[in-house]
């Protein structure tokens, strides 16, 4: 591996071939109900 980065593949990448996907956000924080159960 050299110090120089080869970006020829990135420069020639065709973005039109990508598929559109839906982003789904996940809530990883505990809800208030879970917090109440822990304190009980």
TrEMBL record:
Keywords: Actin-binding, Cytoplasm, Cytoskeleton. SMART domains: THY. Coiled coil: none annotated. GO terms for molecular function: actin monomer binding. Residues 21-40 are annotated as: Disordered. One of its GO terms (biological process) is actin filament organization. It is found in: Cytoplasm, Cytoskeleton. InterPro entries: Beta-thymosin, Beta-thymosin_sf. Its main location: cytoplasm. The keyword Cytoplasm applies. The keyword tRNA-binding does not apply. GO terms for cellular component: cytoplasm; cytoskeleton. Plays an important role in the organization of the cytoskeleton. Binds to and sequesters actin monomers (G actin) and therefore inhibits actin polymerization. Belongs to the thymosin beta family. This is Thymosin beta 4 X-linked. It comes from Cynoglossus semilaevis (Tongue sole).
């Amino acid at each position: 591996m050299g110090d120089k980065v080869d970006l020829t593949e990135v420069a020639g990448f065709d973005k039109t071939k990508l598929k559109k996907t839906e982003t789904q956000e996940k809530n990883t924080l505990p809800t208030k109900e879970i917090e109440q159960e822990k304190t009980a």
